[in-house]
Structures are given as structure tokens and as C-alpha cells.
Specification:
By secondary structure, the chain is of the alpha/beta class. It is built from 19 helices and twelve strands.
């Protein structure tokens, strides 16, 4: 664990890599704190009522700007201070409440959700989590009121997914008793109007120990030497402000260091966890809006004297859209509930929620456009704007490729430890039985149907247990085969990641539907049973397909094709 994170128990998903499910972690499915739920309900309703009369997403997209009066209104509603502690004027919302509000905002407009997320999810987060008492007292009250807007400045021209390649530097100037900050940041959301920036730089000297390291610094608009570029013109989320930042000998005092000097990378990663989880929630919200639009169109549109919702291929799309959204939503609110419970490291789960949620939304928006037909392609209808807005979700807050690799490698640590123990035991001649146990062979095929799965979901519980057992067995097989070389096996890691996400989402959906049945009875919970059953069936089939084909000849063929494209720089298969 890093120094900025207290000792925590591993979260829900690491056990799945061992073919095990901790019942107490998944069941009962988390419920929102009643007191906080009341405040959250009011916030969601207030935003929804305000948005009906005051938010024009078409204008925001066309003008490529969120009007200042809209930003001001969000501050007045308390939305820009949702997660700021109450002692500093915020609402003190936990993760579940924040995700619920972000879901509603994303349903209304993607640009607006990105603006709020950049302000709260990541921009203000380092100050909330790691800022000293004086820093928090000075900055958090105006941040909560929306009087000061925030941004998170990490990405650079040469440091996107590889955040360790930062070149922005903060060098200690003894004569000034402060850092001199120099460098550039790109694609910074809220960069055109934020007042407070959490800037990550390679710092050296002064209060930074040893040879230095990545450090978070609080920089304010108006500081000499700090400028921002014009807003970029983007495919989607066009209303959000995305700019370059430039720092030329910006003098930054030691009192502006956020958290522990030299520990900025760990702090950035921790701050991004909230952003990734709320992005998954927002993706679920946008998916729900698209399902509403598609279902309404399918009911009203007639062809061959029938509503198109009566045709099988339309029904298949609607079923897939609703079930996948149920699975993504279940993942998000299981993870959010566990974060609110405290004491758990949910970094893998947050990343997986972002990946699965964003890719679910991309499939949902594609299906919605297809159901809408020609009007889905026209700018006067909302479908194409949703399509453009949704594409960025798979890129920012950590690309889906990086999050797949990072989460899966983290999940493999305990199986790797067991494999190491087995190797040592074998070398010491401790016997095959001990070596077999250490390797996890006793786990393979041992997964049982969770005890809390009720009769209406019995078949789905068995499906899940079989898939979990196969997942645990394949993890063991892969670790035995590759050992430390697994770090370079991206094809294998990608397939393990896609299986892991679906196993986790399936467990979350089953826990949610089972808790619903226990609470209201099977008849009243029939919609949950329906959606969970459809989701579990497809998710488990997809996971098993990935696992059964964990290493394939296609990998070598893809390597050869990529090398040919590297050499040729074009598609070079000639025909004419």
C-alpha cells in the first residue's frame, strides 16, 4: 500500500482470481444509508426538475460551450460540492450518492457530466483526500460553492497512459524558497475556466526527499507564468472545455504541495478511482436514456403493419441493451456500496466498472441508432450526439486497455504468490500435495453456487459457479505456464480481464436480484429476475469463450500482421 492510503483489506474481485467468492462481501447487496439517501433523492430530483426547463444539450453541443449561468446554477444547487465534507460547506455525499447524481447528469448531457466530474471526481479530489488542514480550510468552501472550479492536470504530450513519463518539472529555487514549475499539460478538462489546478510534476530539491519524485502541486489561475490555450474542437462532449496548459517559471511555494512530496503518482491513481467509478455510473445513466428513446421509437414505428418492437431482431437488441445495462449498473453500485463501507481497496473494481460500463454504453448507443434507423443518423435527433459523446469514455480516465492490464496484473498477485510458494516447496522436496495446494490446484473446479442465490435464480447460480471455477482454473494454468513472463502476455491478460469483469458483474447482478427477491418476494422482483437471467446467460458464455480460447494461433497471426503493417505502413495486400 502507498503511504497515502491506510491499510485496507483487498476488495471483492481478488478472491475471484482464486476461484473463490466471499459471500459476506457480495451479499446482501449494499443499500444506501437511509439518511444520506433522502438527501441524494432530493439532489437528483432537484437537478432533474431544473434540467427540464434550463438545460439545452443541443445548444451546448452546437455552441461548444457550457454557459456560465449553467455552471453557476450547478453551484447554487450544491452539485459542485456534493462530495466536499460538510464542515467545508459541501454535502458530504458518499460514493453511492455521488454516482447516482452523476448518472442523472449524464442522462441529461455528456458535456455537463464531464465538467462536473473534472471538478469533483478528480480536480478537487486530491485536496479532499490529501490536502493539509490549512489548504482544505482555504480552498474547499469556495470549491463547494462553485465559486472556484477545479481541474486535474496529469496528461502531457509524451505521458498519456504512461504517466510515469512526466516531463513537467518543479525544481527548488533556494533564493525564492519555492519551486519553479516548467512544462506543458494537454487535454485538460475545465482548462479554460478552472481556478484551481491539481498539477502533477517531477519535483526535486527543498521539501522533496532524496532524488525527488512526482509531486502534486496546487496552482491557481492568475499565477505569473501560467497560461492556457484555446478550447479544443472535439468529436463529442463538445461543450466541455479541453485545453493545453503551459507553465513557464511559475513560482509555487511549499505550502502548495498536496499531500506527501514525492508520492504524487500514488495520489493521482487514488484520485482517479472515484472518477472511473462515477464514469461507469454515468455510462449506465446514458444507457438508460438510450433504452428509453429506443423503446419508445420501437413501440411507435410501424413497418409491414406491425410495430417494429414485435420483430425478433429488434427485441434481441432491446433485450441485450437492458440486460447489459443491468449488469453494468449492478457492478457500479456494488462497488460504490463497498467503497462507502470502508476498509476495502476497490481500485481494480473501479477500473473494471469504467471499462465494462463504457463498452456497454458503446454497444447500447450502437443498437439504439440501429433501432432508430435513418433518424438516428440525423442531427435533429439525440442519438448521434449520444454516440459522439460516448466514444471518449473508453479513452480518458485511463484507457480501457491500460485498465484491463493494470487491474488484471493486480488480481494475479495472490495466485502468483501461491505459485512462488509451490515452486519453493517443490525445490525443498516438500511433496506434491503441498505444491499442488500452493499452486491453487485445489481451487480449480471447487466453486459452489453462492448460498444466498434463491430458487428463481438457481440455474443462473449454477452457471456462475461453473464459470467462476473455470476462471480460477485458467488463472492457475496461466500462472504455472508463464510465471513472471505473464507481464508480457497481453493477449492472455486481455482475455483474463474480459472474463474477470464478467464474473464480477455476474456476481453483482445475482447479489442484487437475490437481495431484491428476499426483500419483496419473487413476484414483485420478476423484472430483476428477468434482467439478471438474461445478463448472466450472455456474460457467462462470453467469459467461457475467452477462457477456453485463452491462448490461440490468432495471437501469432496478429503479431505477424502488425509487424507487416509496421514495415509497410499501409494495407499492402494487392488484388488488382
Amino acid at each position: 500500500m502507498d503511504a497515502e492510503r491506510p491499510a485496507e483489506t483487498f476488495g471483492a474481485i481478488r478472491g475471484l482470481f482464486l476461484g473463490e467468492l466471499d459471500d459476506a462481501t457480495f451479499y446482501p447487496y449494499p443499500e444506501q444509508n437511509p439518511d444520506e439517501k433522502e438527501g441524494c433523492d432530493l439532489a437528483v430530483e432537484a437537478f432533474r426538475d431544473w434540467a427540464k426547463d434550463n438545460l439545452d444539450p443541443v445548444q451546448i453541443d452546437r455552441d461548444q460551450e457550457i454557459p456560465a449561468d449553467v455552471r453557476k446554477a450547478l453551484g447554487e444547487m450544491g452539485i459542485l460540492g456534493m462530495t466536499v465534507p460538510e464542515e467545508f460547506g459541501g454535502s458530504g455525499f458518499g460514493t453511492t450518492s455521488y454516482c447516482r447524481v452523476m448518472e442523472e447528469i449524464t442522462r441529461a448531457d455528456g458535456s455537463l457530466s464531464v465538467f462536473v466530474g473534472a471538478h469533483l471526481s478528480i480536480g478537487a479530489k486530491p485536496i479532499i483526500l490529501f490536502g493539509g488542514p490549512e489548504m482544505q480550510k482555504k480552498y474547499l468552501p469556495p470549491i463547494a460553492a462553485g465559486e472556484k472550479l477545479c481541474a486535474f492536470a496529469l496528461t502531457e504530450p509524451g505521458a498519456g497512459s504512461d504517466a510515469g513519463s512526466l516531463r513537467t518539472r518543479a525544481e527548488w529555487d533556494t533564493s525564492q524558497g519555492a519551486f519553479r514549475l516548467n512544462g506543458n499539460k494537454i487535454w485538460i478538462t475545465n482548462g479554460g475556466y478552472a481556478d484551481v489546478f491539481s498539477v502533477f510534476a517531477r519535483a526535486q530539491g527543498g521539501p522533496v526527499p532524496g532524488e525527488g519524485g512526482i509531486t502534486a502541486l496546487l496552482v491557481e489561475r492568475g499565477m505569473p507564468g501560467f497560461t492556457n490555450g484555446a478550447s479544443e474542437h472535439k468529436m463529442g462532449i463538445r461543450g466541455s472545455s479541453t485545453t493545453e496548459l503551459a507553465f513557464q517559471d511559475v513560482v509555487v511555494g511549499a505550502d502548495r504541495i498536496i499531500g506527501t512530496p514525492g508520492n504524487g503518482f500514488a495520489m493521482a491513481t487514488r484520485s482517479l478511482e472515484t472518477g472511473r467509478l462515477s464514469l461507469g455510473a454515468g455510462s449506465a445513466g446514458a444507457s438508460k436514456e438510450l433504452i428509453r428513446l429506443a423503446a419508445r421509437h420501437a413501440r411507435e414505428r410501424e413497418q409491414f403493419r406491425r410495430a417494429i418492437i414485435d420483430f425478433g431482431m429488434i427485441r434481441e437488441k432491446l433485450g441485450r441493451m437492458a440486460a447489459a445495462t443491468y449488469g453494468a449498473e449492478s457492478m457500479v453500485y456494488l462497488t460504490a456500496g463497498l467503497v462507502d463501507r470502508g476498509g476495502l481497496d476497490m481500485s481494480i473494481e473501479a477500473g473494471y466498472c469504467k471499462v465494462f460500463g463504457s463498452e456497454t454504453l458503446w454497444q447500447v448507443v450502437n443498437d439504439a441508432v440501429q433501432i432508430a434507423g435513418g433518424i438516428g443518423y440525423m442531427t435533429e435527433y439525440p442519438y448521434e450526439r449520444h454516440l459522439r459523446d460516448s466514444r471518449i469514455n473508453m479513452i480518458f480516465e485511463g484507457t480501457n486497455e491500460i485498465l484491463r492490464l493494470a487491474g488484471t496484473l493486480e488480481g494475479l498477485k495472490e495466485p502468483g504468490r501461491r505459485a512462488t510458494e509451490a515452486l519453493r516447496a517443490a525445490k525443498a522436496g516438500a511433496g506434491a500435495a503441498l505444491a499442488e495446494y500452493a499452486l491453487g490446484a485445489s481451487v480449480a473446479g471447487s466453486a459452489k453456487v453462492p448460498r444466498w442465490v434463491p430458487e428463481p435464480l438457481a440455474a443462473q447460480g449454477e452457471n456462475f459457479a461453473a464459470t467462476l471455477a473455470l476462471f480460477g482454473a485458467k488463472v492457475t494454468e496461466v500462472m504455472k505456464r508463464h510465471r513472471r513472463a505473464i507481464l508480457g502476455q497481453e493477449y492472455v491478460l486481455r482475455r483474463l480481464a474480459d472474463a474477470a469483469m464478467r464474473v464480477y458483474a455476474t456476481a453483482a447482478a445475482l447479489a442484487r436480484a437475490s437481495s431484491r427477491i428476499e426483500k419483496v418476494g419473487a413476484e414483485a422482483a420478476r423484472r430483476d429476475v428477468l434482467l439478471a437471467s438474461r445478463f448472466v446467460d450472455e456474460a457467462c458464455k462470453t467469459a467461457r469463450r475467452e477462457l477456453e480460447d485463452i491462448e490461440t494461433v490468432r495471437d501469432e497471426l496478429d503479431d505477424a500482421i502488425a509487424e507487416d503493417l509496421r514495415e509497410q505502413g499501409r494495407y499492402a495486400a494487392a488484388w488488382f
